[in-house]
Amino acid sequence: MNFKLRLLLLTCVWFSLSALLLGTLFFNQQQTTEQRTQQNLHRELAAHMRDDNPLMHGTDYNPDALKTIFHTLMLLGPDFEIYFLDQQGNIRSHAAPDGKVKMDKVNLSPIKHFMDQASFPILGDDPRHPQQQKVFSVAPISQFGSVIGYLYVVIGSEQHSLLEAQESYQPLLITLFTALILLIGFSLVTYLLVKRTLLKPIEQVAQRLQAQAGNDFRLQPDFVHQVPELMPIASHFYQMAQRIQQQFLQLQYQETTRREMLMQLSHDLKTPLSSILGYLETWQLQAEHPDPLIETAHRNAQKLGDQLHQQLQLAHSKQPDPKPCFEQVDLANIIDETAESLAIDAQRKNITFNISIPTIETIYGDKQLLLRLFANLLENAIRHSPGNACIYLKVVQHTDDININITNHIDHTAPSGSLGLGTKIIQSILMLHHSQLLTEQAPDSFNQSFRLPIH
Hints:
Layout: H1 3-41, H2 45-52, E1 56-57, E2 60-61, H3 63-76, E3 80-86, E4 91-94, H4 109-115, E5 123-126, E6 129-143, E7 146-155, H5 158-213, H6 231-286, H7 292-316, E8 327-329, H8 331-341, H9 343-348, E9 352-356, E10 363-365, H10 367-384, E11 390-397, E12 401-409, H11 421-432, E13 438-441, E14 445-453
Parallel strand pairs: 9-11
Antiparallel strand pairs: 1-2, 3-4, 3-7, 5-6, 6-7, 8-10, 11-12, 12-14, 13-14
């Protein structure tokens, strides 16, 4: 999912949840406030009914008179439901039609809280709806100094609840629909704003960079004129492009100088190298038995001649563009050839090679680059190893690639490389082969490993 869709989805979900949460809090707060207001307003309602109407007849209540009073009061105030309770909370009389009252007893705990003047709202049982609770007003009925019952008035009758439910759906739906339209509108406006001020400029910058990549990274001066959010990035890109152009100029100058030097050295190197090859070939023809040293010297001289020929061709070329040539090559042959070419350097320090290579037919890579890779690795190992040491080269074959490990002991007094070009060349060659060099250094040993593809 891209940034545009994530932004739109996040905005819609966030505002929808926020609206739901705020609506719920507002509804609960409004309901609590309404209940508290009604209960405070009608706090003394039951007491006034008790005092203004003789509810008792001797030691007992008069049912006919009580029902008449209940009916009259409910006609005058249809928002109230009135019940007469005994000491245990049992409903002794009411004015509701038959079958409407579902409860025979009311919980006295809220009534006691009411009379103890606890903070409102206090919710009590609704005899008509056992699963609901409503605010109420209550007054104790005393006879001869003792409480014999309660006048219990439920505020918010069944008619009130039905009318409120009927009237509240339409405004609620209108409010929700309006909120949804506002949320969608805000999300679209936010998306258009972000797209116009940020996403579209980023896309334009990416297109210009892609177009200039094929033009040697030459950026126009107006590239830095971007929206404020992208100006620092554009400025850094432009400085990077200037640095690249400066390096291009330096490389062109160095390439021109190198070409001229190679042209001058061509005649100085070709003649003595041809003479050396001629003497070595003559030695091989006249010798009765092959000499390994002469064979190695002749092979290295031929390799030097091939490399010189390639360099001269590049020097003559106006646009040198060497490209790797990947093919199936024999890894064992490459390692053996490299070890033989470095045998003299190893013998000077009495260093031996311990090479372990399984039976591998071929690997996929550039032969010349791999020869240069192993030459740099083994040269570094020889340079940093103490005398009379051993360099271990181990090749482990896997399903799709091989793992190569080179381990050598460390001579802390050995000179280091001059410019570190060997390591940079190794990293570049491995990058072309989709690999990287992993280095592990211990106090007395040095291990380097990398992978090469088989196919």
